[in-house]
């Protein structure tokens, strides 16, 4: 029963809204907070060097304070912030679906616990053969390549170059 509830789209929407509202509340009041997250849903840009990546656990706590707090951006369905990692303070933009947040923590106390998880990405879907990303599906037809930009220019359907 609980598995059905936490995977229900309406429950996911409710949890996402609650996460967003809580983070906006903390941001508006300049209250630093922590985000306990599923690392499998987190992206780093640029990617972390392997020696730093190996130090992160499957469930990782990110502290949103100082410059990380100032760089925090919340735009449904993602949140992002800049952070430094390791002794060299390697800089990376961290981004993830809002639902990847398991807990919001203030002063070592969880103030919100999220039981919903982000829906699986198509490439993670199991039991659904032939599911591909939108870009893979688009590129599978060579005729569609003309719609992609190359060096700031793209071909129009008539084969003419345009800016």
Commentary on this structure:
With 163 residues, the protein is an alpha+beta fold. The chain folds into 2 domains: 2-119, SH3 type barrels (Roll); 123-162, no CATH class. It is 25% helix and 30% strand. It has 5 helices and 10 strands, in the order H-H-E-E-H-E-H-E-E-E-E-E-H-E-E. The protein has helices spanning 2-6, 9-28, 50-53, 66-71, 134-139, and strands at 33-38, 43-45, 59-64, 73-75, 78-85, 90-97, 101-106, 109-113, 154-155, 161-162. The strands form 3 sheets. Strands 3-1-7-8 form a 4-stranded antiparallel beta sheet. The chain has a 4-stranded antiparallel beta sheet with strand order 2-6-5-4. A hairpin with a 4-residue loop joins strand 5 and strand 6 (90-97). 13% of the residues are buried. Residues 124-141 and 143-163 have low confidence and may be disordered.
Chain-wise SSE layout:
Layout (H helix, E strand, L loop, with lengths): L1 H5 L2 H20 L4 E6 L4 E3 L4 H4 L5 E6 L1 H6 L1 E3 L2 E8 L4 E8 L3 E6 L2 E5 L20 H6 L14 E2 L5 E2 L1
Antiparallel strand pairs: 1-3, 1-7, 2-6, 4-5, 5-6, 7-8, 9-10
